[in-house]
Amino acid sequence: MLSHMRNLMRQLGDVARLLDDVGPLPPLEITFTHDPDDGPYVIVATPHQLELADQRLAVDQIATRIQSVPKVGEVLTGRYGASVRGRWADTLIVAVTNAAPHLPGMPELPRRTTTTLETADLLRSLTAWAPQLQQHMDELVVRDHSRAHAVHATVTDDDAAQSLMEGLVPDTDSIWHQPGRRYRALLPTGHALSVSVDSLR
Q: Buried b / exposed e across 168-197, counting CB within 10 Å, b at 16+?
């Protein structure tokens, strides 16, 4: 099941090394996913609260490392974004800006206490946990929330969710934790894990 995640350990290591090489970047959302035609790939996205120029700088820095040329275009009416696609080692990387509008009343990015180096270290630490369970995952997301990192896994059935939760201490007090649909626990790395069951994937 979910054989497209079979190379997850290699992808985690490749992206960690990419972040090491690029250096300081904004808080990122990194998604390990797949495409029916192109196979597994990794999306590296910048936060929409940043000005496009700052987001674009991060995409440009990644583009330089993967030796690809960024594309800029209108992604929403009147809103533009940048993206780049290329390989780093054995992993297909897609770096994108986030064109979602930052509307009045929406929270700003918290004052950042995390670093890109910590994101890379988290990816490396996940190589000790994720590979044994990768056959149960449909998608894995690592988010830098500016003050802490979190990990989210999407699975297609509750049996897979139970396999991911095995050996972890569930956070049953969390409103997120709804057995059969959503789970929350603490990873061996000390980071929060949330699991969603999506039978439609």
A: beebeeeeebeeeeebbbebebebbbbbbb
